[in-house]
Amino acid sequence: MTLSGKPTIGWIGAGRMGFAMATRLLDAGYDVSVYNRTRSKAEPLAAKGATVVGTPVELADRDIVFIMVSAPKDLEQVTVGQHGVLTSDAASPGMLVDSSTVSMEASAAIRELAAQHGTAFLAAPVSGNPGVIAAGKLTIAVSGPRESFDSAHDVLSTIGRGVTYVGEGEVARLVKIAHNVFLGVVTQSLVEITSLAERGGVSRQAFLDFLNDSVMGSTFTRYKSPAIVNLDFTPTFTIPLLSKDFDLGLAAAHDLQVPMPIAAATAQIVASAMGAGLLHEDFAVLLLEQARRAGMTLVSENAQVASGLEPSSHE
Questions:
Q1: Half-sphere exposure (CA, 13 Å, Cβ side) for 198?
Q2: 310 falls in which pLDDT band (50, 70, 90)?
């Protein structure tokens, strides 16, 4: 703990999401040390007050270490691989909070290894993108020991406005996977109905203005409206990542014997978008795949469209 009574924080993973989340903690006055595989991506956090370290094991003495990496193999590497955060003979973190999107099985394996080192483990996948984080509107699903959640709640609440304890073990992973499957299904539905309206002579901006003011509008439809109207597919979450989450969701549905016909159909459309080479753009690029199948050629409407995200300061 620091003199202020705040826990010391370690942060592993300074990609788009990790960078924005760590920034929230730095802006709130937390003592944060950061590791990223490509060190140059973490260096700008030093200007915000972070200490940048060269290996994850250098974070072993931190009270809470957050992890935000891309895949199960990366999670394993930064925890128990060479120079992993759990490999020190002298110290182990009080708690690991993993916000990576990984399977329940991969999460359980790391939880067990952390327990062997006396380190508590919370699965804490998130919903949002860097803009959502900056606006203070990130949401977090958390599972693990309730007492660990309670002790980390203030830190988690600094990162996001909605922090929900969903149960023991790895159930937060299932919540996140279900969320992302819904994200894909909703996005595909949104681009289908927008294309229908446009084919009938309605501009995308006009249609989405109407939708967003109706009971069907949401935070999500609002902040995706600029991308859909202006064909700006600067990536926040890509088609390959969405496809991975569909695979995880449909695998869970198979294991739990829950039929998901709409999700299965959408997964095929997402796979089609990947086959069409839409690999690096934001997943709202499903609009272009929809247009291709409908024989439509889209152009940017070059309109001013509000995203609905207004940055908020820390309370």
A1: 23
A2: low
